[in-house]
Amino acid sequence: MWTMFNNWKIFEDNLGFVPSEEIKDKLNEYYKILVEENLKYNLTRITNEEDVYEKHFLDSLLFTKETKIDNQKIIDIGTGPGFPGIVLKIFFPETDITLIDSNNKKINFLNIVIKKLNLKQIEAKHARAEELARIENEKYDIAISRAVAYLDVILELAVRFLKIQGKLILLKGPRADEEIKNSKNIDQKLKIKLTNKQSLADTGFGERINLFYEKEKSTPELYPREYAKIVKESGKK
Ligand SMILES: C[S@@+](CC[C@H](N)C(=O)[O-])C[C@H]1O[C@@H](n2cnc3c(N)ncnc32)[C@H](O)[C@@H]1O
Q: Which of 64, 94, 96, 223 would give a disulfide with 71, using CB separation of 3.0 to 4.6 Å?
């Protein structure tokens, strides 16, 4: 076996189950492709095996303790090298996943992963969220995003994709509370409500806060605005 990773206990401890052999094989293959293609596609600063499995793979899954994932239609906005979207697909093959990123290099890499891992019901699209959201209005049960933008920015980029009562899940770092305070009630304007906050203790790879929103009503026509406008108003990227 090319990879030496064997600390599967950390997955069991944090998720409550041991990944199957098929899941382990697919994660190992994903890690191999990530490391092999990293220089060419400029994917991640983290390449050490233990770190990738914990800081990228496991971190992409911790939110699933708070919400049941089965066959939902999910969009991962600003997926980069596939976090959390590819990892979710490996663990929950019944999902229907769309990965989007504005950087076409990432999309080329994701298509290699999808092909080599023989993943089904998953598509990688080169698109900007604020543009695609107008085309794919209210199409998704879940929109998810990790480390893409400041809270008020990502809320506006993501909300139109969701069906009414759809969930927006934001995988955030320790400053999520500060971002909520600074978001100037944009959630009310966007007709979306914070329903749950998952604070994860620092188990050696940084404190994480995952935010769960629910869409209450259709998105007002104004949103999302052009990216430059959103960022200008936010004052944050
Ligand atoms: C810091 S990376 C995070 C990647 C991945 N989600 C992760 O957790 O490692 C942010 C990604 O979001 C993408 N991105 C930024 N703004 C975007 C937008 N408006 N629409 C689509 N993708 C965007 C970037 O190209 C980049 O790949």
A: 94
Please indicate whether residue 41, judged by its CB atom, sits closer than 6 Å to ligand 1.
Answer: no
pLDDT tens digit sequence for 18-45: 999 999 999 999 999 999 999 898 888 9
Report the CATH number that the domain containing residue 119 is assigned in CATH.
Answer: 3.40.50.150
Give the relative orientation of helices 104-116 and 21-41 as an angle to the nearest 10 degrees.
150
From 99, 101, 134, mutation site for ligand 1 pocket: most ligand atoms within 8 A of C-beta: 101
pLDDT (tens digit per residue) in 91-105: 999 999 999 999 999
Number of structural domains in the chain: 1
Tell me if 127 is assigned to a ligand binding site: no
Q: pLDDT tens for residues 199-219?
A: 987 766 678 999 999 999 999
Buried b / exposed e along 147-165 (16+ C-beta atoms within 10 A): ebbbbbbbbbbbbbbbbee
